Fold this sequence. Notes:
Oligomer: single chain
Largest sheet: 2 strands, antiparallel
Amino acid sequence: MTLIHELEDVLAEEQNLLLTGRYDQLPDLAERKARLADALAQNAAKLPTKSVAKIAAQASHNEALLASARRGIQAALTEVKQITQGEHQSTYSKEGMRKPLSRPVSITQKL
Length: 111
């Protein structure tokens, strides 16, 4: 298997991990990807333009997936923070309108 094919396989695996939410496996994969990218960079002048374009497109797509995952994780962390700090929560009705969620009354509020 050529370096190009190995990198394409790693990028495909990375895409799969991002789409299935298995973020814990990304660091090991990133190391493999970096090693392959370094090896390819040393032979950049010999690489077919079409292969380089394909790898670049795959990497760009994965970068967008990673950015989306990061935004989702940030949104979840913000939501958890708001819940734990007792801030007002809301949801959407079946009509798509925002509506408040009622918070349960805590024991200390009843006393």
